[in-house]
Amino acid sequence: MPTTESTVDDTATTALPDSPLPGSRPRRQLLLALIVLLTAAAGFCGFRWWQAEQAEDLRAGALERAREYAIALGTYDYRQFDDALAAVTDVSTPEFADKYRAVAGDLRGLVENGQGVSVATVSHAAVETLEADRATVLVFLDQDVQNVAVPDGRVDATRFLITLHRVDDRWLLQGADAK
Predict the structure, then answer these.
(1) Bias category Low complexity: which stretches (predicted)?
(2) pTM given for the model
(3) Apex CA 162: angle with CA 123 and CA 64, to 5°?
(4) How many CB atoms lie within 10 A of CB 72?
């Protein structure tokens, strides 16, 4: 008698259900929503951080330029008056440079005849207002002044409200009001 052989696979095969387990779809949607929310929050926080960094760089630049420009305004030597004049006008808006040249022209004779020398230092400075293209900075300037009337020198304290205008990523001196 002929025998037939049949092989039986002893490994159990389990069919996966065609539909997801109950409740798994809402969990996936919740997880996806959470990922989207966290990504948006991270993007927003990163953008705000970038904005704060930009504002701080703008503030620091305005403060540094105002300090430099105040020193240029308060430093002069009768032997090199034109150099002191150029140190201010080279960093000024055209309008302020014209005004400063007029004032300096009136003072030239007084400084040269009195053999005036002044070395300025900034003791304190703070940004009062800041916009993208305009800043005002309060500067406390001390000038060590010597001339024929005060040969041993004296310190004059001047407070300036420096106005800056930003042109092509550069702060220019737009005004200097002594307070």
Answers:
(1) 1-15
(2) 0.75
(3) 55
(4) 21
